[in-house]
Design brief:
The structure is a single chain. The chain has about 400 residues and is of the alpha/beta class. It has two domains: about 200 residues, ATPase, nucleotide binding domain (Nucleotidyltransferase, domain 5, 2-Layer Sandwich), CATH 3.30.420; about 180 residues, Nucleotidyltransferase, domain 5 (2-Layer Sandwich), CATH 3.30.420.40. The protein has 16 helices and 13 strands.
Length: about 400
């Protein structure tokens, strides 16, 4: 690598650049691996402009995935979790380097990295102060790559009384807002979340929240019943029949009726609950395919009901823009379209935001905003008492 010029304020140097190449790194609640998106950015806030440069996905090794599950479930000893933090930082570093090679990018050209990290605990409503923990050492990544790394995006919002999530709505407003139609931006990862974008949407009045499970409960049931990590293309769900009695019982979960701001995680819809539901259903005589079909319908229905009840949009929603891994589940997408027959349900690819890369792109944007000291949380969304800059900045040295 080329040696980086010494400067007392690397963030100031970054802000002076007219164009910045930022890597956004996302690993979500599905625990499937690491998304890396390279984005060319100019400006900040309402003047922000972006251009996709490339995207690459690196799956987690089975052993690492198992450790992360234990960390999320609270069964991993604390000192092992500290070690996992560092080990995961090395995994992220390697994933960024592999992605750079795949995309034909010189590591030395990367101006910054936006590193979401892996959430292992999220309890923003804990009294007297909320807690959110994402592991994957930003310091390790900064030192390995010799660049600026922004991580720990959620803590400042939680400290200001917010949920710490969702943060992506800030990016949705900048990148996907429309002055001519009502839109909803939906991301289906392990958890599903929406951003309501009426024609007059602004950062002062934006509505966004986690609707509940995305792929998380489906994936957990697939592991329990089929020994597979996910329902490829929604084929298993398509071969089953939705049990509407079970569906209605699941829809009684108190989270679905909670008024935003709200955020969900494994504590609400995690592995333990999903395995319990799957086991009870099979013991009651339901076919495994019926379990998967019902959980898939739960995701679609809870998303649609969340939009209809809490989005705050009066009048027809012309477009629902969908990103995240759930886009690949054709049965889920069909069920969602059936639940929203008056809306055009389309992948975010149609808006120059590849569905697989959308969240990673957003964390590149959030890193840019942190370095530029632009507040990127939205109190009407997270419940925070004020706007805050989201993220902690680490600086590595080019060798």
């Amino acid at each position: 690598m080329q040696k980086q010029q010494d400067h007392p304020n690397h963030s100031e140097e970054y802000r002076k650049r007219q164009s910045r190449l930022v890597a956004g790194v996302m690993s979500g609640t599905s625990l499937d691996g690491v998304d890396v998106a390279f984005v060319r950015l100019q400006g900040t806030g309402s003047s922000l402009r972006f251009q996709n440069v490339g995207f690459y996905f690196t799956p987690y090794a089975t052993g690492l995935q198992s450790q992360l599950l234990r960390a999320c479930n609270g069964t991993l000893p604390l000192h092992h979790a500290y070690q996992l933090d560092v080990d995961l930082g090395m995994v992220y570093s390697s994933a960024i380097q592999q992605a750079a090679i795949f995309c034909g990018i010189d590591i030395a050209e990367i101006d910054a990295v936006g590193l979401h990290g892996q959430t292992i605990y999220h309890n923003p409503r804990r009294a007297p102060a909320g807690v959110t923990v994402q592991i994957g050492s930003g310091s390790v990544v900064a030192e390995q790559l010799g660049t600026i790394v922004v991580n720990d995006f959620r803590t400042n919002d939680v400290a200001a009384g917010g949920e710490g999530a969702p943060l992506v709505p800030y990016c949705d407003l900048l990148l996907l807002g429309s002055p001519t139609e009502h839109r909803v931006v939906l991301n289906i990862g392990g958890i599903a979340n929406i951003t309501a974008l009426p024609r007059d949407a602004s950062a002062d009045t934006l509505v966004a929240f986690d609707t509940g499970p995305g792929n998380m409960m489906i994936d957990a049931a697939m592991r329990q019943l089929f020994g597979r990590d996910y329902d490829d293309g929604g084929a298993v769900a398509a071969s089953g029949t939705v049990n509407h009695g079970v569906l209605q019982e699941l829809l009684r979960h108190p989270y679905f009726h909670q008024i935003p701001p709200k955020s969900a995680g494994r504590e609400d819809f995690g592995e333990e609950l999903s395995r319990e539901i799957a086991q009870m259903a099979v013991e009651a005589g339901f076919a495994p395919e019926t379990v998967i079909a019902t959980l898939t319908q739960l995701t679609a229905t809870s998303i649609a009901e969340g939009i209809h009840r809490f989005s705050g949009i009066s009048g027809p929603i012309e477009t629902v823009i969908v990103g995240g891994g759930g886009v690949r589940n054709q049965t889920l997408m069909r069920m969602l379209a059936e639940q929203m027959p008056n809306s055009n349900v389309v992948p975010s690819d149609q808006f120059k935001l590849p569905s697989d890369a959308k969240e990673a792109i957003c964390f590149a944007v959030l890193a840019n905003e942190a370095i530029c000291q632009t507040p990127a949380n939205i109190p009407s969304v997270t419940g925070a008492t004020r706007r805050v800059v989201c993220g902690a900045i680490r600086v590595g040295t080019r060798r």
